[in-house]
Amino acid sequence: MPVTAEAVKTVRQITGAGFIECKAALEEAKGDVDAAVQDLREKGIAKGKALSDKRSTGGLDQGLVEIYSHPGGRVGVIVEINCATDFVARTPDFKDLARNLAMQIAAMDPEFVGHGDVPANFAGSLKDAALLEQAYVRDSSKTVKDLIAETIGKLGENIRVRRFVRYVLAN
After folding, report:
1. Taking the model in full, what pTM does it have?
2. I need a labelling partner for 151 at 20 to 30 A (CA). Which of 6, 102, 103, 171 fits?
3. What would the CATH number be for the domain defined by 62-168?
């Protein structure tokens, strides 16, 4: 099946990848938009993980604090997400990530950010207690860590969740 400009545009809108990457993924997937999107997401995750591993958490002194109040006002979340530049912190992708992480925290009530925050005597499940290990509520086929890695791959800059607080209205 030939690759059309409309198909490339659709894949770009869904993934945020570059024109050449989208066209190559569509050619490899024989024009199947869904397969091309899946392939680019997997490559994005791999690219994001490689960038995250390559770059230390030093220099991540920019970012934003997202404040989320769940409908009904009984649950609220404050989450701090860091990146290296204020330019990236102002992008819609970074803001969307912050919003999605705040909603994840409101819905799933994690206790810790990741492995490094879990005390040695913790006996529970890391998949439930650590935010980065939880299945992403909007797409259970990936973890929160995968979601962050996708955004890292898209933006080309390391990102970390520094801390969060979840408030619940007492009865």
Report:
1. 0.73
2. 6
3. 3.30.479.20
